[in-house]
Amino acid sequence: MGKDVIIACDFNSKEDTFDFLDKFTDKKPFVKIGMELFYAEGPRIVRDIKARGHKIFLDLKLHDIPNTVKKAMAVLRNLDVDMTNLHAAGTINMMTAALEGLTRPDGTRPLLIAVTQLTSTDGESLKRDLLIDEPMDKVVMHYAENAAKAGLDGVVCSPLEAATVHKACGKSFLTVTPGVRFADGDKGDQKRVMTPAEAKKAGSDYIVVGRPITAAADPAEAYARCLAEFVD
Ligand code: C5P
Predict the structure, then answer these.
(1) Residue 66 region, left (φ>0) first, then alpha (ψ -120 to 50), else beta?
(2) What are residue 224's phi and psi, to 5 degrees?
(3) Who is most buried in 9, 71, 153, 194, counting CB within 10 A?
(4) Are 14 and 38 in contact (CB under 8 A)?
């Protein structure tokens, strides 16, 4: 599986999403569909985008009892997405059950990626709200190792953590990294960022890029720039 750029399609309607995707006439980008668009438009939006020739990362971050997650994954596998995810906090049992549910009768399945700790959770809320006393980097690495033990394909993490994750979980364990900005771009609400070129150097396998492409004056040009820096 080669390196690729995934565009976060953070829109809330089919119309806005298709208007955006119409701008890409050469290569069809790998796109991320999150809760907002999925809950607004339903599973149909996944099939429609797939039919237009895009690879899809369905970012629904499942977290429930193992049996429920397994059954939900068995439904998602029929949407023919290329990658989906869950919360590692659901435990190794939940992740193993998810893999079982996601695997089709012919043995194929989408890539399954774990969220470790959300980047919106800081050390303070980890301790105060979740009663976890260990430092954040230790918790993130432990959750990544749990995901690897369960047989998952990788984790969502900061590009700043990609090298450490590869060291602990193996080179082929995928790092899918948001928090990417162009050197001359606006950071928005992202705090710890890397450029696509830096993320490549750091060993990210996939970068997830939203606003630097979706809010660009010329999204196709911004996407091409990401590819040139990260993949070529
Ligand atoms: O617009 P921007 O490039 O910041 O979008 C990044 C995308 O990655 C958004 O869809 C955001 O929800 C997602 N994401 C993130 N940080 C995480 C996990 C997901 O920014 N830790």
Answers:
(1) alpha
(2) -60, -35
(3) 9
(4) no
Counting Cα atoms < 13 Å in the Cβ hemisphere of 27 gives 17
- Closest atom of ligand 1 to 8 CA is 10
The finding on whether 208 has its CB within 6 A of some atom of ligand 1 is yes
Q: Which domain holds residue 34?
A: 4-230
Dist. CA 225 → ligand 1 center (Å)? 19
Is the backbone of residue 203 left (phi > 0), alpha (psi -120 to 50) or beta?
A: left
Q: Is 159 in the pocket of ligand 1 (CB under 6 A)?
A: no
Total structural domains in the chain?
A: 1
Q: Is the pLDDT of residue 77 over 80?
A: yes
**Domain containing 82 — which CATH number?**
3.20.20.70
| Ligand 1 atom index nearest CA of 211 | 1
Q: Which tens digits make up the pLDDT trace of 62-72?
A: 999 999 999 99
- In terms of Cβ atoms closer than 10 Å to its own Cβ (0-12, 13-18, 19+), residue 171 is exposed
Instruction: Tell me the pLDDT of the chain averaged across its residues.
Output: 96
Q: Can you say how many angstroms the Cα of residue 201 is from the centroid of all Cα atoms in its chain?
A: 19
Question: Does 61 participate in catalysis according to the annotation?
Answer: yes
